[in-house]
Design brief:
Elements: E1 2-6, H1 12-21, E2 25-29, H2 33-40, H3 51-60, E3 64-67, H4 70-74, E4 79-82, H5 98-108, E5 115-119, H6 127-138, E6 144-148, H7 158-163, E7 167-171, H8 175-184, E8 193-197, H9 199-230, H10 234-242, H11 263-277, H12 282-305, E9 313-317, H13 332-341, E10 346-350, H14 355-362, E11 367-368, H15 372-376, E12 381-384, H16 396-402, E13 407-410, H17 417-422, E14 426-428
Parallel strand pairs: 1-2, 1-4, 2-3, 4-5, 5-6, 7-8, 9-10, 9-12, 10-11, 12-13, 13-14
Helix pairs in contact: 1-3, 5-6, 9-11, 9-12, 11-12, 12-13
The chain binds nicotinamide-adenine-dinucleotide (NAD).
Nicotinamide-adenine-dinucleotide is lined by residues 6-12, 29-32, 35, 83-86, 99, 102-103, 106, 121-122, 151, 153, 155, 261-262.
Length: 432
Amino acid sequence: MKIAIIGTGYVGLPTGVGFAELGNEVVCIDKDAAKIEKLRSGRATIFEDGLDEMFLSNVRGGRLKFTTSMQEGVEGADVVIIAVGTPPHPITKEADMRYIHEAAEEMAGFLRGYTVVATKSTVPVGTGDEIEKIIRGRRSQADFDVVSLPEFLREGFAVHDFFNPDRIVIGANSEKACAVLRKLYEPFAGKTEILFVRRRSSETIKYASNAFLAMKIHYINEMADFCEKAGADIYEVARGMGLDSRIGSRFLNPGPGYGGSCFPKDTNAMAYMGRQYGVNLSLIEAAIKGNDERKVEMANRVLDVVKNIPDAKIAVWGLAFKNGTDDCRESPAMQIVAELLKHGVKLRVYDFKAMENAAKILGNKVEYASGVMDAVDGADVLVILTEWPEFRQINLEEVKELMNTPKIMDLRNLLNPAEVRNAGFEYHGIGR
Ligand code: NAD
């Protein structure tokens, strides 16, 4: 099939690579000329495990192309996938729909023959109707259907998740569109549950799922705080809870708060929709507030540990919002760093993949280390903010020798507390 993808970011690029790998002819469109230039020169624009090789082999095989031209990509496509950003509005926090509207306006003139327009971006309920109206307004005779095709991939596992999704949700109000998507997802039939639902249900499924996961994380974080005060261990508690199949063991890891480009934005957008419809989404509202406060509380814990050290130097390991990605958007690590900066402390930071993205935000406010050891050199406390498993392999003796005072704040509970304490460190984790 011929597929056009509008928006070649964290979702659009792995999706394009995945569909090309399945044998489709894919054209990825982006209005960011620098991004397209880089992709055309054979370099992937994001870090994702396994992406580079698959990207290159499909470019070389002629199945994957990149362009800034809407016409070049959309004309003749059987399916046009919209994967542009839907960032939060700076004031209301609702999903900012300007890129979606632009994409719909821009593509309308180039639809040829029957085309399915599929929205992969996370969009408010009713967006399918809006896109339909925009296209119809520009091309009253166009032959098309708009479907909702929410994306559930996890950053860091985008390639794996493309080929092994838990489910594929298709929100379509037309049988003709369902037939096209059945064909597109044929390689997944029998292996993955493909759920056909109404378009508005599909749009809701995405927000309801992300809000639920965010609340689950916030819940275990609150339980971790409780465990600290009550003398319980959050891991024993989480294991005991997770063995109940109604609860499930995943997403029960305590940490510094949820983050990333999706959970904060999607919980806020869902809360906004609730208010618009006059529905009380009190659980989601509480999770948003508690999660925001948590970053400040985490920074305060760090400050407390160095409160008696004049001109304290803080080493930070990890800036990405989670391991396996270079993405710093709404990263709890970055928010905690920002909070610490308000108190005038000196920070020296390091991340395996996110240095470039972090530097775009932090500028000259922090020092950038060249490696893990360089980060801790002369530090009074080491704060671990992203759960890169590589941090576990680091020689604690060497770290101790380099540090001014041997203190570790492990806000991801990455290290073994007993080992760290035996190595002579003051250790602070979460929930135990
Ligand atoms: P992104 O910012 O990485 O990529 C969006 C791309 O769209 C950018 O490169 C931008 O230049 C391009 N773009 C915007 N308007 C355009 C236009 N009119 N024409 C061509 N290109 C245009 O965003 P992302 O993280 O890939 O997210 C995209 C959508 O997918 C969002 O709605 C997000 O909520 C959703 N989503 C993201 C994830 C994730 O893990 N990142 C997971 C599931 C769903």
